[in-house]
Design goal:
single chain; alpha+beta
Length: 84
């Protein structure tokens, strides 16, 4: 399950994102999206969790929670279209 996380602190690293989701189950990958020009975080990222139930539990628990001083939004990521 691919999970979208927004409103992240610009200081958050992929390890911070991974540590946030590990209590809910296996995390296959975590990544923070970086602005190509400034090389700074864009304030959002994605977490891949192989188990659907664990992913849903993480979304329910973490959506609207505080992380590094910011209220984060957590939801199922939209699938990328093949044309994009």
């Amino acid at each position: 399950m691919n999970i979208f996380v927004s409103s992240l602190s610009f200081k958050a690293k992929k390890e911070d994102l991974q540590d946030l989701f590990i209590p809910f189950g296996e995390v296959a990958s975590a990544r923070i999206i970086i602005n190509r020009d400034s090389r700074r975080s864009r304030g959002y990222g994605f977490v891949e969790m192989p188990n659907e139930e664990e992913g849903q539990a993480a979304i329910q628990a973490l959506n609207g929670s505080d992380h590094m001083g910011r209220t984060i939004n957590v939801a199922v990521a939209n699938e990328r279209s093949a044309e994009a």
